[in-house]
Structure formats: structure tokens, C-alpha cells
Amino acid sequence: MNDKQFWSTLGGITAALALLFGYLIYSEHEGVNAAQAEVVSLRDRIASSRKTVQSTPQVEQEVIILREISDRIREILPDTKDLNNVIRDFEEYMQEAGVTSQGFRPTSNSNSRQRTRSAFERVSYQWRLAGDTFQVLDFLNRIETHSRFMAVSKLSIKSANRRAILDEGVASHTIILDVETYKYVPPSAKEGEVEIRSYERKRDLLSGKIGVRRQALTLQTYRYQGARGRRDPLVDPRVPARVDDPNAWTVQRQQEEVDELVARVEEAQGYWVASNAAKSVLERMVQRSELEKLILRIGEDVRRIEDEGHITYRPAQKRLETLVTEPLEVLRLALDRSKAIEGPSATALQTVGDTMVGYIEALEYEYALDAFDAVVDSLELLADDPERMELADWLLMLYEEATILRDFSAIEFDVGGVAIIEGLEPVIIIDGKRRTIGDLVADDLVVHGVRPNEVDFIFRGAIVTREF
Amino acid sequence: MISVNLLPEEYRRRAKSPIGIIAAISAAVLINASLFAYWGYLHFGVKANVATTRDVLQADLAGLKWQVDYHNSLKAEIATRSQREQTLAEITKDRVLWTKTLDELIDVVHAGREGVDHFIWFNDLAAEVKTDRNNHGQLTGDGVSGAEAYAQLANFAEDLEDASLSSLMGIFEAPEPLQATQEKPDETLIPSVTWSFPLRMNLLSPQDRVKNREAAEGDDQ
Question: pLDDT tens-digit profile of A166-208?
Fold first, then answer.
């Protein structure tokens, strides 16, 4: 091989090797760069994942809260129309509010809301009702406080004509209500539940927040409190001209007076219900006693108002008749009937007697007398029943005993000392004065006997003892 | 031409190492050895190191994956569940509590001023909630005033806007200007003279109603 060939060969081999290594180095660089880029990307993803995972506890909390309030949300905004139940509820509400239904029909879903929003479906019904304004408000309030979301989108009240009100005594307006409710249309994705570890413990820790969120779901409602003495604003309040009586009550005054009587009758009915539900005979007697007094007072006021002819406004007259006079009479009859038929039973009398004995032994004489007061008016009903009359006599005896003891315990005096000497009459110093057996200390109070730490008196025919 | 060296061995010029060749070969070897060494450094040093780092990071990421998946599942559940809550908020926003509104209107009718009854009643009342952009609904009524002075109507109109009597202005715009017509007198009734007037109050937008309600609730607290 000559020099030229040698140099060519050497140069060629060297160059080839250099090229090879250059290529390898280039490839390695590419590989390293790619790997480094991958490392950077991995680092970013890890950082991002860590950041995501950091907020997992908060997300978990939100999921737990949402799961715990989901039942309430579903109640307000259910997946189903369930219209039959809504209709049943409405009938119940109408009965409670006193409005009458004249018909109902579903209305079309052409509302723009329906077209533009797809997360829910609007279901609307139109009701035609009759009743006075306050009954309608009562009914409306029941709708607007229904556990399911309901809204009145349209309503109209046309007043009953004056002649009909005068004839019937009640206002029966014509009401048309458009009530709408909603059915939730869930998106296609299912509400899958992820398993959360230690769910119950985490839920318990979140109970406060869950309560707050549940509270926030409460729909805005209004506490309707009835007519409260106000007149129906859809009733013509003018009264017939009465030139002969310039002091005639205004419609407002007539309404207020009748409303007050209605409230008192309701109070009396409350006593009647309470007396029937009373757990103890004593409580029953007390309730009946209050009821009797109230019936008498209301009856007297009704008689006065009717005699003086103050109630001329027909709706007020009708209310007085249907909500005061008639229920009052019913109550009176019920009370009389229960007295005539029953009177206090032997058990009741025995209970009252035992109660009185208990109070007397506990030195609570006033309570014993109160217990007696609850039955004293009805004792005369027992005259024909020897068994119960015997108990009544026992009660009378206890009454006397309690009265004497109460009055005796109310007498105050100071005992300065006693002198008991054999063979001589004992002497006692009362309020600084020397007294011996047979001496009068105060009205009806005579010294009967003296012992070292107590003194006996004769008080209203009974022997009573005072310790000192 | 062939040249023949005829000199005796001891006189001949001694053969020398080819410095140039050695240098050239050495240089070639050096260059290629350097390149090889650098490649080796890249392959077995840098690249292996990066690959190790990558493997570690991939293991880390794999460890985080189930946590991220869990997180994403929770987020998906939130999205699904909160949709219903948002829907509820959306439909409740528009609702007008007519019980409250009419009850407060009756309060105003009943209130009177300085002991003088407004003495107003209605032949009809109508209310409607609309979702149009420029018409949110209204409350209308065919009213009648039996007050001795028709100025009492102006008192009534003022009372409708009186926040101490009702919160009607929280959901309605101010009533439209008053107008009234005297009806034919009826001497059989007291009062015999009455004035009829239209009542019309337009509903505020749902946003304004919510804003006013929240402001009122804030004041209460």
C-alpha cells in the first residue's frame, strides 16, 4: 500500500468512525432531550396532580354535603311529576282553607321558560275556586309552603256581587289560579356514587355544614295569620243608610267585634277539647270550670250586641251566627249533657279526695281547697246516688278540715313560755299575756290543753295543735 | 525505475518510525475515542440518569393516578348533583309569594291614616308573573274608594310605597299615576258617593326582587 492509499484509507476510516460516533452522539442527544422533556412533563403532571389531590378533602366534603342534602333537593324538585298526589294535596288544602273547587285542568307548557331551559319540565294546572279573600290566601299559603316547589304564576279574583253576599251572608268570590310545579329532567350522566372512606365519620364531622346547607334550601315562605280583624277587600263595605241611628257601628267595628267573639269561642272550644283530653280528673274539672265561665261571659256579650242591634252588616251577621252563636250553643249543650249524664264519677270523687288529703298532709291547704272547688258545683248532681253522695260528704268534711287548718295556720301569736305544775292548771304566756285552759286567745280560738312543747286549741269546734 | 541500495547494511540509513503516520493514526484514534467516550458518557451517564429520573417520576405519577381519578370522580359527582341545586335556584328566583303580597296589600287597605280608613275595596284583582325580558308581570285591580275626600286615594297610593307598612316596593315598581272616576251616587248606601280607580303595579325583574329581598333580610338581621 503506498502512502497515498494509506492516507486515503486512514482518512476514510477515521471519517467514517467519526461520522458514526457523531450520529450516535446526535441520537443520544435527541434521546436525552426527549427524556428530559418527558421528565419535565412528568414533573408538571405530578405537580398538577399533587395540587389537584391537595383539594380532595374539600371536594370530598362537598360531595358528602351534596349527598346528605340530596333527599331534600329531590323532595323540592323531584324527578317525577306525581300529579295525582299534588291533586290530592290540593283537595286537602281546599278543605282546610274552606275554599271550594269548581274545576281544574292542566294548562299547556308553552311558557318561554319551558322552551329555553331544559333542566326541568314545567307542569301547570289551572284551578277555578270559590271562597272569600282570606280563605283564598290561606289556600295560597298552603300551596306556597308545600314541600314540593310550587308557584302561582297567575291568579285572578273576581268579587262576589253585593246581592249574593247580602243573601248568603258570605262572600264567595270567583278565583282562577294557575299553579305550576316542576319536574327535574336529569342529564344523561348518572349520579354515580364514589366510595368515600370513613364516610359516616366524615359526615358526622360535617353535620354543622350539612345543617346550614339544608337550611339554605328552605324555600322562601310566609307565615299567614288569617284575617286578623281586617275586612275582606273584595267585599263592598258600605252599609245600608240608617238615618235613624247616627251611632250605628261602622262595618269595620262590626267586623272587629264579631272577630273578637269568634276568637273567644275558639278559646272556649280549646277548653272543651282540653277538658276531654285531660289526663287527670282534676285537670278536667279545672278546664270545665273555665269553659263554663267563658260560655257565660260570651253568651252575655252576644245577647247585648243582638239586643242593641249593632250588627247590621250581613257578612258580620252571618259570621256571628255561624261562628259564634251556633258553636256556643253546641258547646253549652255538650257541657250540660256531660254534667247531667255523668256528674263526677266515684273514681273522680275518690281522686279529688285523695288529692285533698295529700295536700292537707303536706300543709298545702289552699291547693286542697282548689281541688275541691273544681267539683263543688257538680256535687248537687249526686243527690240521688248514695254511693257517690258518701264520697261527696267526705269531700265536704275534707273541705271543712282544710278551711279550718288554713285559717288556723294564718293566726299568728307568740308563746312566751309554759308552766306545768302538778296539781295546778297549766299556764301558757301568749303574746305576753297569761292564759290557762278555757281562755279565749282570739276569735273562735280557745286554749284546750298545754304540754311542754305544744298547745291545743279549740278552733271552730275542732281541736288543733300548735307546736312552739 | 527500480532503485537498488547496494550499500552494506551498516552504511545503510536506519529505517525510522513514520512519525506522520503515527501522528495521523493517533489523531484519528484520539478523535474517534473521544467521540466514543462522549457517546458513552451520554448513553450510560446522562441518558441513564434521565431515564432513571423519568422512571421514578412515572412511578410517582402512577401512585398519584388513583388519587387524581378519585378526585375527578368526586368532581363529576359534584357536577351532576349540583345541577339539580342550580336548577332549583333558577326556578325559585322567579317565584312571587302571592300570599305575602296580597296580605300586605290588605294591610295597606286596612291601615288608613291618622284614624281615617282608606275605605277602599276592589271589584277584582289579578296578578301574573311573566318571564319576558321587558315585562315581568303585574298586579292589577279595579278599585273603589268610598272615602269622603278623594284625597284619601292619594294617601292610599303613598301608603302602597311606604316601607313601614309593607314590603310591596321590594317586588313592584311604584304604582302608576292615580286616576279616578266618580260613580253615580247610591243614596241607599253609606257612603253614597264612590270613586272607582284602576290599580296597576308592575313587577320588578327577578334579579331586583331577589336583591331587594336579600337587602331586607340583611336589614332584619
Answer: 777 788 999 999 998 888 777 665 556 888 889 999 999 998 9
Distance from CA of B92 to the nearest CA of A (A): 8
Task: Look up the CATH superfamily of B98-220.
Answer: Ribosomal protein S6/Translation elongation factor EF1B (3.30.70.60)
DSSP assignment of A225-240, as one string?
---TTPPPTTS---EE
With beta carbons under 8 A apart, name residues in chain B contacting A17.
Answer: 28, 32, 35
The reply to whether B135 touches chain A by the CB within 8 Å rule is: no
Question: Among A213-227, A341-355, B181-195, which stretch is predicted with the lowest mean pLDDT?
Answer: A341-355
pLDDT of the residue at A188:
60
Cβ of A155 within 8 Å of Cβ of B191? The answer is no
Asked if B58's CB is within 8 angstroms of A238's CB, the reply is no
How many Cβ pairs closer than 8 A exist between chain A and B?
250
> Which grid coordinates are listed for A385?
246516688
C-alpha cell at B90: 333558577
- The domain limits of chain B are 23-93, 98-220
A449's CB contacts (< 8 A; 6+ apart) are A426, A437, A455, A456
Percentage of chain A lying above the pLDDT 70 cut: 93
H or E element at residue A304: helix A281-308
- Tell me which chain A residue has its CA closest to the CA of residue B193: A238
Inform me whether the pLDDT recorded for A114 exceeds 70: no
**Integer Cα distance of A283 and A374 in angstroms:** 9
For chain A, say whether B91 makes contact (Cβ under 8 Å).
yes
Is domain A346-410 given the CATH code 1.10.1040 in the classification?
Answer: no
Q: Is the pLDDT of residue B221 over 60?
A: no
The interface predicted TM-score of the complex, written ipTM, equals: 0.73
Residue B82 and residue A173: Cα distance in Å, rounded? 43
Residue with cell 278543605: A95
Please write the tens of the pLDDT for every residue from A235-262: 888 877 665 666 777 777 787 888 889 9
pLDDT band at A115 (very low <50, low <70, confident <90, very high): very low
The per-residue pLDDT for range B143-202, each reduced to its tens digit, is 999 876 778 888 898 999 998 889 999 999 988 888 899 888 887 787 788 899 999 999
The H or E element that residue A424 is part of is none
CB < 8 Å from A in window 55-84 of B: 57-58, 60-61, 64-65, 67-68, 70-71, 73-78, 80-84
Quickly state the pLDDT bin for A116 (edges 50, 70, 90).
Answer: very low
* Contact: A66, B76; criterion CB under 8 Å: no
Q: What's the pLDDT tens digit per position in A87-110?
A: 888 899 999 999 999 998 888 755
Sign of the dihedral through C-alpha A390, A393, A398, A399? positive
Interatomic CA distance for residues A432 and A414, integer angstroms: 8
The dihedral of CA A126, A128, A133, A138: what is its sign? negative
Domain ranges of chain A: 1-54, 80-185, 251-341, 346-410, 415-467
For residues A356 and A285, give the distance between their C-alpha atoms in angstroms, rounded to a whole number.
14
- The answer to whether A241 contacts B84, with C-beta atoms less than 8 Å apart, is no
User: What residue type is assigned to position A189 of the chain?
Assistant: A
Residues 157-196 of B with CB under 8 A from A: 186-192, 194
Which is the CATH superfamily of the domain at A80-185?
Ribosomal protein S6/Translation elongation factor EF1B (3.30.70.60)
Choose among B31, B71, B124: nearest Cβ to A56.
Answer: B71
For residue B122, report the phi and psi dihedrals to the nearest 5 degrees.
-125, 140
Question: Which of A46, A233, A238 lies closest to B64 in CB terms?
Answer: A46
Q: Which of B28, B54, B213 sits opposite A14 (nearest CB)?
A: B28
pLDDT of residue A346: 77
